[in-house]
Design brief:
The protein folds into two domains: 357 residues, Glycosidases (TIM Barrel, Alpha-Beta Barrel), CATH 3.20.20.80; 81 residues, Golgi alpha-mannosidase II (Immunoglobulin-like, Sandwich), CATH 2.60.40.1180. It is built from 16 helices and 21 strands. An eight-stranded parallel β-sheet has the order 11-10-7-3-2-1-13-12. The protein has a six-stranded antiparallel β-sheet with strand order 14-15-16-21-18-19. With 565 residues, it is α/β, with parallel strands linked by helices. It is 27% helix and 16% strand. The two termini are 48 Å apart. The chain is globular, with a radius of gyration of 25 Å. The structure holds alpha-D-glucopyranose and calcium ion. Alpha-D-glucopyranose (GLC) binds next to loops.
């Protein structure tokens, strides 16, 4: 009796003594909120323009929160909206504690956070932690003299030979990754564009100041960060050359290198563990821009004890560029068994849109629904990219003078850059798709009259309504929420099928990745899935309400999702 009372007192004490933000909320099955959430990436310059200057902004995003909540989005990740000279459209930050005037003010950000809350939409920002803008006052100080206290905040080296960069590392955007600075007669390192100097994360003051940035935003109400370019946060401490592979040149005319010394250095994991601790103290979540070439690398980002990035995005899945059931099966199997919570994404501001990568020009709408049916029914968290839900496609620049992305400017014509996947969101049939009455910063895709939110909302068979139904199912169907992934018919070369099973109930997913109608026997018993029959939950073609799982007919590029009975 006494013990019980003491226990109760202790429980009450714990509940009240820990501030609300530090109590890691988990649901009945032990999931923190983000494991069952749908995330949605917003490219702020292209989402909605509230003050009619042709540039999307924060009040524009706020004005669309009702749309996002109607769609079923739980969290938005906003690509950088900090003050920036926009050499790389915000990925060159000159001040981490403010908002770029193009996008509004800090007060607009507070308003966006305040308006998101009652709609249960969490807001995440982009943490560009590897490098800053050269206009950032930290870099300005660093470059002012060799004796400046911030000199070592960036990576400065002497020439190897007179007028030669310190080593052979190349920039992702072409040319040497070193730039000479005449003020102090040394070279600074930039993995990306020269006005994006890399920070020196071996300096503890850099770590402290950067971690403080995240604390400041958490206190303002931000629910987490997407960590940018983590793989290139550290370089080899001895600055050894990268080995050159063969004699071929890349799109920028540079030799092809095996990036063993400028990427994936082990020290980055220590930083991620400490950054995660700060996030945990604020009940925040970290998404990783984690480009990896194999599953072992991806696993490392979760951390040995799941103590690094909560959500490392699986870009190996995102870059399977053909409708290949075998390739998808293999990748799903890997990440599903990795020990970490899978994070699926099919496109973003750096990757060509799904519609272009998989479309065959004839069945594109079907294929858009097919891909949605795939990554939104897997066990894991999904990160959508704005416009994907209405079937937006790439609208690439046609002339070099129109290119806005530095990558396209430097790589034209072989590399046209990423403008094509960053064009304005299509809201309605009005001028500029309702994005702005003024000419937008990037041209709107001509197809907007048919592919826009308003038109698609009123068409029950639209891609948009398909997404909305999928998202709603994902939030309510127990087997989709909790079910384990069971691959079915693993030898089928054209149809990808699987079950998601939970407590005797299964959701079945059948995705025809070929251009001909297929008849499928799911062979459920062989995988221990018991069913007398199946009921259709959602399908991208006309299907009867009840089907026989040993004989399902699926149209070309059709998706069928059902439930066992
Ligand atoms: C990240 C961003 C990309 C940007 C690059 C360099 O990879 O996603 O858009 O260009 O960093 O700044
Ligand atoms: Ca604007």
């Amino acid at each position: 009796m006494r013990n019980q009372k003491l226990g109760l007192v202790f429980l009450l004490f714990v509940a009240f003594a820990i501030p609300a933000w530090a109590q890691t909320a988990v649901d009945g099955e032990g999931h923190p909120w983000w494991q069952h959430a749908v995330f949605y990436e917003i490219y702020p310059r292209s989402f909605a323009d509230s003050n009619h200057d042709g540039i999307g902004d924060l009040p524009g995003i706020t004005s669309k929160l009702d749309y996002l909540s109607w769609l079923g989005v739980d969290a938005i990740w906003i690509a950088p909206m900090f003050p920036s000279p926009h050499v790389d459209w915000g990925y060159d930050i000159s001040d981490y504690y403010s908002v770029d005037p193009d996008y509004g003010t800090l007060r607009d950000m507070d308003e966006l956070l305040a308006q998101s809350k009652p709609r249960n939409i969490r807001v995440l920002l982009d943490f560009v932690m590897t490098y800053t803008s050269d206009q950032n006052k930290w870099f300005q100080e660093s470059k002012s003299s060799r004796a400046n206290p911030k000199r070592d905040w960036y990576i400065w080296r002497d020439a190897r030979d007179p007028q030669q960069p310190p080593n052979n590392w190349t920039s992702l955007f072409g040319g040497s990754a070193w730039k000479y600075d005449s003020t102090t007669s040394q070279w600074f390192y930039h993995y990306f564009y020269p006005p994006q100097p890399n920070l020196n994360w071996r300096n503890p003051e850099v770590e402290k100041n950067m971690f403080d940035v995240t604390r400041w935003w958490y206190k303002r109400g931000v629910a987490g960060f997407r960590l940018d370019a983590v793989d290139v946060m550290f370089v080899d401490s001895q600055f050894r050359d990268n080995p050159v592979v063969g004699t071929e040149r890349n799109a920028f005319g540079d030799p092809v290198e095996r990036e063993i010394n400028d990427k994936n250095q082990p020290e980055l994991h220590g930083v991620l563990q400490r950054l995660r601790k700060v996030a945990d103290e604020h009940n925040a979540v970290l998404i990783g821009e984690t480009w990896t070439s194999d599953i072992e690398q991806l696993k490392k980002y979760y951390g040995e004890h799941n103590d690094e990035v909560n959500m490392p995005m699986d870009f190996m899945f995102a870059t399977i560029n053909k409708l290949s059931p075998a390739d998808f099966r293999k990748q799903i199997e890997w990440v599903d068994n990795s020990g970490g919570w899978p994070v699926y994404v099919v496109s973003n501001h750096d990757i060509r849109r799904v519609y272009d990568r998989y479309g065959d020009g004839k069945h594109d709408d079907q294929i858009a629904k097919l891909m949605a049916s795939l990554y939104l029914t897997l066990r894991g968290t999904a990160v959508m990219y704005y416009g994907e839900e209405i079937g937006m496609e790439n609208n690439d620049p046609k002339r070099p003078e129109d290119v806005k992305d530095s990558m396209g400017k430097l790589g034209w014509p072989k590399e046209k850059g990423r403008d094509g996947e960053r064009t304005p969101m299509q809201w309605n049939t009005q001028a500029n798709a309702g994005f702005s009455p003024t000419t937008p910063w990037l041209p709107v895709d001509d197809r907007y009259k048919n592919y826009n939110v308003e038109t698609e909302k009123s068409d029950p068979n639209s891609i948009l309504n398909y997404y909305r139904q999928l998202l709603s199912m994902r939030h309510t169907n127990q087997a989709l929420l909790e079910g384990k992934y069971i691959a079915l018919n693993e030898d089928d070369p054209s149809v990808l099928s699987y079950a998601r099973s939970y407590k005797g109930q299964s959701v079945l997913v059948v995705l025809n990745m070929s251009g001909v109608t297929r008849k499928v026997n799911l062979n459920l018993e062989s995988k221990g899935v018991h069913a007398k029959g199946a009921k259709t939950l959602l399908s991208s073609f006309t299907t009867p309400g009840r089907v026989d799982p040993s004989e399902i007919s699926v149209e070309p590029f059709g998706a069928w999702i059902g439930e066992t009975e």
